[in-house]
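Morning!

This is the sequence you dropped in the shared folder:
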Amino acid sequence: MESFNGSLRDELLNEEIFDSLEDARRKLALWRYDYNTVRPHSSLGNQTPQQARRALEQFEDSAPGTIAPDGEDEYPVPTCRLSL
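The structure's back. Tokens below.
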């Protein structure tokens, strides 16, 4: 959690100026999409969180319902590259 908070602060909150609440929400959504679906994480074996989640689902021993629902629907498809 501390790593996520540090990344969020260093890569978004300290780098961006938000013009409005809607602008902040849009920039946060783009950052979250990049963080969860594009960028590999060393703590996950250089997989994205989305790839790691799918790999966990492949284990035969995993009990149904133990992994949080896939949140793909909540991330808008970015129309531009995230700039930091």
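Headline: The mean pLDDT is 80.

More detail when I'm at my desk.
O.
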